[in-house]
Structure formats: structure tokens, C-alpha cells
Write a structure and sequence with these properties.
The chain is of the alpha+beta class. Helices cover 23% and strands 25% of the residues. It is globular and about 45 Å long. The termini are far apart.
């Protein structure tokens, strides 16, 4: 078992994140990247824009990451032993594309309450200041949810371009990860990321989120997978794990889940973004 140490738990409590955590080898990360790029090649557009959500439902290797015991041990340290997978996202920044993530809080538009959940950001390629790694506003999770301006701005990889203004950038911490490492962050910590200025893709696979079984979806509905423990509440429909790469039925389930997500993410908004 690889539960978080007392120092790591303290970092999470004080700062709102813990990083880096070793999960798998660089060779494994390359294998996962190859599977992502195979899907892109075989099914152009499948992982673009809002298709980036829930790729673990059609990729056995991403499914394996989602249910990785080292990740689940760390997550259990934070939210308890009953763990549900409530969606994943691929954050891919290609070189020479103007993709960035504005400073925001995950809990703002996602509808998961109470906040007994955590986001795991798994590096499939190295992630550093040069290629646009995440930056965290340390301690910001201790405040209430902040006002977010809906920018819908070009290049912003978030649904509404949701932005917390006046974030002190000089006080943010870059989360530098090697391929195969991950960070965990709190639903309310303010974070964002800059442009990829390197000549290779920066790929992050984000389990957003691991939720405790006591967490409801108050804005719509999410299918979930039981990752560990048991679900005594049954607030959500349970979905299975992928049978094979790009299975036809699994593709349908992914589409249904992503349609449901769009309803959640744009609840109350008069406008829709690309994601």
C-alpha cells in the first residue's frame, strides 16, 4: 500500500495540492501516449474538443491508469475507502497552438457536492514550466468559491473560459512532473496553466474526479465506476469498464456520458464554448 505520508497530507491540507507522486515508468507512459495517438489516428476527431472527456471508457490503458492501485491508495488517504470514478479529461497542448488554462476552481461548475473529492493529474509526457505545466495558488482552497468571469476566450481550454481575476501569478507554484508522475489537487484550489512553448505535445490525463460515494451530482447526472470499496448511496448510475480498444458499445457510452457532461458544464449559461 502506498498511502500518502504525514508530510504529503500536511502539504495537501496547507497548500491544496500534493506533488509529485510516482505512479508508473516512463516506458509505460510512452505506451499510453501511443494508445492515445492510435485513437486519434484511427478515429480523427474522437478526442477533439468535448471528445477529450471520458477517453478511459474506450481505451484499456487509460482505464488501467484510472484504476491504478497506487493512485487509489493516495486518493483513499484524502477521501476515504469508498471511491468512485466520476469522469476523466485529456489535456493535450500541441506545440505552436495557443492553448492555455485560465485560473479557476474545479468545484465552480462541476456540480459535485459535498467537496469530498479530489482531482488526479497524471503526466503522460513530462510537464514543466516550458511546456505549460499546472500552476497552483497555494492555500487558495481555504477560501470560499470565488467569482469567475466567463470569458469564452480563444485558446482557453476550459468550457466557459472561466477565470478568477487578480491571481498573484508570482505567488503560484509550478507543478513539475515527469511522465509517469501525478499531482493531486483540492476541488477549491485556484490553478491554471500557460502555453506550451516546446516542440512536443504536453499530454496530461486527468481523473476529474475521484469522488467519495457520499457525493451527489446536483446539476445533472454522471455515470460512475466503482474503483474501490462500496457504494452504499447509489446516487449515480454505474458504468462498466472498456472491453477492448474503441469498442462500438463503449464509444456509445462515452458519447452519452459526454452529452450529460455538456448539460452540467453549461447549466445556466446562455452561451456554449468548444469544450
Amino acid at each position: 500500500m502506498t498511502y500518502l505520508s504525514s508530510n504529503q497530507l500536511k502539504q495537501y491540507e496547507d497548500e491544496g495540492f500534493v506533488s509529485p507522486i510516482n505512479i508508473f515508468s516512463k516506458e509505460k507512459a510512452k505506451e499510453i501516449r501511443n494508445e492515445i495517438e492510435l485513437i486519434e489516428k484511427e478515429m480523427p476527431g474522437e478526442l477533439d474538443k468535448s471528445g477529450r472527456y471520458n477517453a478511459h471508457l474506450i481505451s484499456p490503458l487509460l482505464d488501467e491508469v484510472t484504476h491504478n492501485s497506487k493512485i487509489l491508495d493516495a486518493v483513499q488517504s484524502l477521501i476515504g475507502e469508498n471511491i468512485l470514478v466520476c469522469g476523466t479529461t485529456l489535456f493535450i497542448k500541441n506545440p505552436n497552438e495557443k492553448g492555455f488554462v485560465s485560473y479557476h476552481q474545479d468545484a465552480k461548475y462541476i456540480g459535485l457536492e459535498p467537496h469530498n473529492w479530489v482531482t488526479a493529474w497524471v503526466a503522460i509526457t513530462d510537464s514543466n514550466a516550458h511546456n505549460g505545466c499546472m500552476r497552483m495558488w497555494s492555500g487558495s482552497h481555504k477560501d470560499n468559491l470565488k467569482d469567475h468571469e466567463q470569458m469564452f476566450n480563444e485558446g482557453n481550454l476550459l468550457t466557459r473560459g472561466q477565470t478568477v481575476n487578480n491571481v498573484p501569478k508570482e505567488k503560484t507554484t509550478p507543478l513539475v512532473l515527469e511522465a509517469g508522475q501525478m499531482s493531486l489537487h483540492h476541488p477549491k484550489v485556484v490553478h491554471g496553466s500557460d502555453l506550451n512553448k516546446s516542440d512536443d505535445r504536453r499530454i496530461g490525463f486527468v481523473i476529474q474526479s475521484y469522488i467519495g460515494s457520499n457525493v451527489k451530482q446536483v446539476l445533472g447526472k454522471n455515470g460512475v465506476q466503482l474503483a474501490r470499496g462500496k457504494d452504499n448511496y447509489n446516487f449515480h448510475e454505474t458504468i462498466g469498464r472498456p472491453k477492448s480498444l474503441m469498442d462500438k458499445n463503449d464509444l456509445k457510452i462515452k458519447k452519452r456520458e459526454n452529452d450529460n457532461l455538456q448539460e452540467i458544464f453549461y447549466k445556466g449559461s446562455s452561451k456554449k464554448g468548444n469544450y
